[in-house]
Amino acid sequence: MIRTNGAHPRFEQRAAAEAPEPLPRRPGGGRSKIVGIVQARTGSTRLPGKVLLPIAGRPVLSWMLERVAAARELDEVVVATTSLAEDEPIRALAADLGVPCLSGHPTDLLDRHLKVARARSADAVVKIPSDCPLIDPRAIDFVVGHFRRNHQHLAFVSNLHPPTWPDGNDVEVLQVDVLEDAWCLATRTFQREHTTPFIWDQPERFALDNVAWPAGRDLSATHRLTLDYQEDFQLIAEVFTALYQPTKPAFSVEEIVAYLDAHPEVRALNARHLGSSWISAHTAELNTIRHRDPTSTSHARSR
Fold this sequence. Notes:
This protein is α/β, with parallel strands linked by helices. The protein contains eleven helices and eleven strands. The protein has helices at about 60-70, 90-95, 110-120, 135-150, 175-185, 190-195, 195-200, 230-245, 255-260, 265, 285-290, and strands spanning about 1-5, 10, 35-40, 55, 60, 75-80, 100-105, 125-130, 155-160, 170-175, 210.
């Protein structure tokens, strides 16, 4: 829900509605807590300050947090930024929006996520990168709901391995115990910078599952809704201008796809960046990627 407070909407976070069987908590009892973590920084090398770029008078991050807060399966949403002075505007924006914000290591995202999990007494966390401003809250609910229903035998669930959703709907859910294991054991720089590869690249060690795009199509390499380049920003701004309505702020990913398919000139704005991902620089080091169909590319993100 949203309350007006100055220049930006203010969010009142709501508990999950009609939640499936709760995850078992550690000793002490009580309902399990699943926390959505939006990782955000201003120091992007490709598009500096991208999460604060304005669309219709509001920063991109404000629009994204509005969409994430609409997810019903999350018990809380927290922004995880860096401890650098340059990210003070992110802390200020989160405070203005009424969203908890914790600061941590600039490049060790694994450490930053675990810091939030411990501070907010989470039992499971949902990793959501801030370069996904068009993320559909229904996508979050779809993936987190699957995790809740199958928590007894799953450590990690995502919609990225392999990807089928339009790029920019990245959702990864993991038990905090597994996050702690990765924090203790992950030694490679990319494993710590990108938070989850130590987990999802070891299916023989961890119980993993993936949630495919329910429409039965693979749009991961044809529809790019993420924010890394100026062309991405242009497309995202066009989508918001065309689809946003105050009475229906969380327009769906299906509506976005339909709009882009009907307006190929907009869809073409960032077409040259289709498939861009940090994964390509580490293919030789990732067992599950190295042995995957070479035409398939993961779009897992840090930030």
